[in-house]
C-alpha cells in the first residue's frame, strides 16, 4: 500500500499546491482543520505589512496600502468559495462576536417568534452565544432550544425564529444537508444561520443557490489565514436593508470619517463591521486567500474524500479499526474533511503520535481527530501516519506517564 | 530656538527610548496618537510568531508558546500603566466590541436605571455603541443622554445608570478630571465607564485609586501595538462576580476545552473574552508592551507637556498662532498629548505638511491635529516641523489642487 500511496501522490492534480506552503520537515500535519499551515505568501505579507507598511509608511498606509478596504477585499476572495456574490461577504471580529451580531439582527426580523433552535452537539461557542443573548434579552424575546442532529427537522415549526446549525460537526465530521434543511426551515418562515467553520475551503458550498439567510465562518482552518485570523460573515442580499446588527461601531457607519454624532449604517454587509480592523492579521489572511484563485473546490473535495477513504483502508490494513472505533459517518459523502476515532486513551494516543511527528488532535472526552487539508497533505503522509500509529498501539507507548497529562487547546 | 531644541534633546532623559523604534528617515511623525510607530521588538516578534510559531510549531504553539495566555499576558503589561492590579485587565476584540460588553454588563447591575450619559463630542463609536444598545434593548431599558463636556456634572443624578466618558477628547485633547468626576458620579450610585484611548501610555492613570468601575482603551496609539491591535478592558475587582457580559464566547468560559454544552463564566476579567484571540496581532502587541518595563510614566507626561509647550512657543515665534487658532486648552495640565488647531483649510494644510515629511492628521470638519509620542519625538522634531509649516502657510502651497481632495482615515 505504500507504493500505492506514492502512485496516488504522483497522479494528484493538487500535488503542486503544497509548494505554496511552509511545512516543517519530519512532520505530518493532520490538524489543518484546527490551524491551517503557513502559506509562503502570508509570510511575505506579514513582513511587508509590519516592516514597510506600518514601520515606514505609518498612518498613511490606511490609504496608501488600502488597509481600510481589507475587510471587503478578504470578503471578495472568500465569496466564491461560498457560492456567494462577493458583496454579501465581509471579514471582521471572531465567529463568536459575528454570531452575536447575526442572531440579534435576525431575531429582530422575526417579530412574535423567540426560539433559536440548534443542536446540542454544535460547537460550544455557538450555543453559548445564544445563552448570552437569552440572558441579555430575556426569555420573552429569545429562547434557546437544543435538539439532537437527528431531530432537527422535527423541531421546525412556525414558532421558531432562527435555525442555527454548523454544517460539519466539529467532533464527528458529520455533514448536514444545508440545501434541504434550509428549504424546510424556510417553509416555516424560519431564518437560517449556518456556521461554516469546518466547511469553508474544503466543501463546495452554494449559499446563494441554497437560499441561505446568514452565515459565519472561520479563516484559520482550511483557509490558512493564521492563528485567530478574523472570521467572515455572509448576509444574503435580500436581508441587507432590513437587517440591523446591534454592535454599531464606527467601521459599520455609512461615513465613519465624517465623525458624525449619530449612527447611520453602511450599505450592505459592511454595516456588520464594528471597530478598527486588526490590520496585521487581516493582511496576512488576505495574502493567504490568494492561493484560491486557481483552485477548483470540487477537486479539493474529491481529494479530501480520497484521503479519508485511504486512511480507513490503511487502518484496516494495520488492523487498527477494532481498537480505534470510527465515530464519523462511514459514508464519505456524509463526512467533512476529517475522521474521528473513539478510544478511552484518545488523549494519550494523540500525544504519543505527536511525539512521533504526526500532529492530530484530541477532542474531549474521547475523540482522536484527524483532519485532511488537501492542499498540502498527500497519500504517503497518511500511510506513514498510520504506520506510526500501528507501532504506538502495538507497543502501547501511549501508556507512558508523559503522554497522560491532560492539557490541550483549540 | 533651533539651538535651544537641540539642547533640550540632549538633556532629555527619555531620548534613548527612540532607539527602541524604527522611525523612517526624513520623516517627523506627529501622529503617534493615531498609530504608534513600530517598536523593533514588535518586528522581531512578528517574524517569530509567523515563521517559527505558526510555520514550524503549528497547532502545538497554543501550549508551547502559550498563545492561550496572550490576553492575560498583555493585560499584565498594561495594568501598571493604568494604576491597576494586573488581574483586572485583559486584551481582546476592539474598543467598540468591548464597550458593548461593558455597557450591557453594567446596565444589568443597575436595575431601575436606564440612562447612559455621555458627551456629545465623545469619540463617535462610543456614542454609536450606546445607540445600538438602546435599539436592541429598547428605551425602557437603555436611554442615551448626551451633554456638553461642561455640563457633565449637572447631568448626574439618581436616575443615571452609567456615565461613559473619554478621558482625553480626541479632537481638542481636553482632559477630564477622572478622579473628581468618578467620585461625583458614584455619589449618585452611577457606574463609570472610561475610554482611555488617548490616555494609556502618555498620561499617569490611577484606576484603582480613583475607584473607577470599568474602562476600555486602545493599544495602537501610545502603546505602539500595531494597526488595529486588540483593545484592553478593565473591570474593577469589586464587580468581578456580579458583572456578566453578554457576548458569551468560548474563550470566556471557565473551562473552554471541556467543550461543555452550557456556559459558565471564567473567574474575573477573563470572562470578558469571546472568540479565539487574534494571535499574530496580540503577539506583536505583547512584544511592543515590553518597552514599558523601564519607563516612568510621570517622565513621559512631563516630556509630553514640554513638547506641547515648545510647539506653542515655536508657533508664536513663527507668527502662526493667529492663523492656526488653538482649539486645545491653553493650560498644559488640561491637555492630553496633542494640540489641535482650527483652520478652514486644515485638510489641505495637513496634506501639504505630509508632503514635506511631517505627518500630522486632520479631523473633520476643520482641525489640524498634532500628537506627541514622547518615546520617539524630540524638541528638534517640533522645531523643524514648525519651520516647514511656516513655509507652507507663507507660500500658501496648501492651495494647490492635489492637496485639496478630501479622503482621510483614522
What would your notes on this structure say?
Two copies of one chain form a homodimer. Chain A is built from eleven helices and 15 strands. Chain A has helices spanning 2-11, 40-57, 61-64, 70-82, 95-108, 124-137, 178-187, 279-289, 297-317, 346-355, 379-395, and strands spanning 21-22, 28-29, 38-39, 89-92, 115-119, 143-147, 160-166, 191-195, 214-217, 231-235, 325-326, 338-342, 358-359, 361-363, 367-371. A seven-stranded mixed beta sheet of chain A has the order 4-10-9-8-7-5-6, sandwiched between helices. Chain A has a four-stranded antiparallel beta sheet with strand order 11-12-15-14, with helices on one face. Chain A has a two-stranded antiparallel sheet with strand order 1-3. In chain A, strand 14 and strand 15 (367-371) form a beta hairpin. The radius of gyration of chain A is 22 Å and the shape is globular. The mean pLDDT of chain A is 96. Chains A and B meet through helix 2, helix 3, helix 5, helix 6 and helix 8 of A and helix 2, helix 3, helix 5, helix 6 and helix 8 of B.
Tags for this model:
seven-stranded mixed β-sheet, homodimer, 35% helix, 14% strand, four-stranded antiparallel β-sheet, Aspartate Aminotransferase, domain 1, Aspartate Aminotransferase, domain 2, 410 residues, alpha/beta
Amino acid at each position: 500500500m505504500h507504493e500505492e500511496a506514492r502512485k496516488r501522490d504522483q497522479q494528484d492534480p493538487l500535488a503542486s499546491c503544497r509548494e505554496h506552503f511552509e511545512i516543517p520537515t519530519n512532520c505530518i500535519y493532520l490538524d489543518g482543520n484546527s490551524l491551517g499551515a503557513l502559506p509562503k505568501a502570508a509570510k511575505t505579507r506579514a513582513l511587508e505589512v509590519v516592516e514597510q507598511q506600518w514601520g515606514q509608511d505609518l498612518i498613511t498606509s490606511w490609504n496608501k496600502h488600502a488597509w481600510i478596504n481589507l475587510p471587503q477585499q478578504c470578503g471578495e476572495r472568500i465569496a466564491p468559495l461560498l457560492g456567494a456574490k462577493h458583496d454579501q461577504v465581509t471579514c471582521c471580529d471572531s465567529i463568536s462576536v459575528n454570531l452575536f451580531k447575526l442572531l440579534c439582527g435576525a431575531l429582530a426580523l422575526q417579530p412574535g417568534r423567540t426560539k433559536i433552535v440548534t443542536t446540542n452537539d454544535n460547537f460550544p461557542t455557538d450555543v453559548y452565544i445564544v445563552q448570552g443573548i437569552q440572558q441579555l434579552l430575556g426569555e420573552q424575546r429569545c429562547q434557546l432550544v437544543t435538539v439532537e442532529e437527528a431531530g432537527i427537522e422535527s423541531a421546525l415549526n412556525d414558532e421558531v425564529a432562527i435555525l442555527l446549525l454548523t454544517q460539519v460537526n466539529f467532533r464527528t465530521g458529520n455533514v448536514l444537508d444545508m440545501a434541504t434543511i434550509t428549504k424546510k426551515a424556510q417553509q416555516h418562515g424560519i431564518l437560517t444561520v449556518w456556521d461554516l467553520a469546518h466547511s469553508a475551503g474544503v466543501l463546495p458550498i452554494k449559499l446563494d443557490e441554497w437560499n441561505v439567510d446568514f452565515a459565519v465562518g472561520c479563516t484559520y482552518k482550511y483557509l490558512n489565514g493564521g492563528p485567530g485570523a478574523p472570521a467572515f460573515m455572509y448576509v444574503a442580499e435580500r436581508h441587507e436593508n432590513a437587517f440591523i446588527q446591534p454592535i454599531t461601531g464606527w467601521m459599520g457607519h455609512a461615513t465613519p470619517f465624517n465623525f458624525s454624532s449619530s449612527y447611520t449604517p453602511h450599505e450592505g454587509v459592511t454595516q456588520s463591521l464594528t471597530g478598527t480592523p486588526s490590520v496585521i492579521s487581516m493582511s496576512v489572511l488576505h495574502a493567504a486567500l490568494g492561493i484560491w484563485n486557481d483552485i477548483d473546490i470540487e477537486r479539493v473535495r474529491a481529494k479530501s474524500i480520497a484521503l479519508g477513504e485511504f486512511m480507513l483502508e490503511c487502518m484496516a490494513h494495520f488492523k487498527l479499526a477494532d481498537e480505534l472505533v470510527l465515530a464519523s459517518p462511514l459514508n464519505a459523502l456524509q463526512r467533512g474533511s476529517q475522521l474521528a476515532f473513539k478510544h478511552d486513551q484518545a488523549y494519550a494516543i494523540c500525544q504519543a503520535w505527536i511525539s512521533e511527528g504526526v500532529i492530530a488532535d484530541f477532542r474531549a472526552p474521547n475523540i482522536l481527530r484527524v483532519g485532511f487539508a488537501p492542499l498540502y497533505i498527500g497519500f504517503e503522509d497518511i500511510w506513514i501516519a498510520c504506520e506510526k500509529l500501528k507501532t504506538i498501539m502495538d507497543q502501547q507507548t501511549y501508556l507512558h506517564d508523559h503522554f497522560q497529562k491532560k492539557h490541550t487547546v483549540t
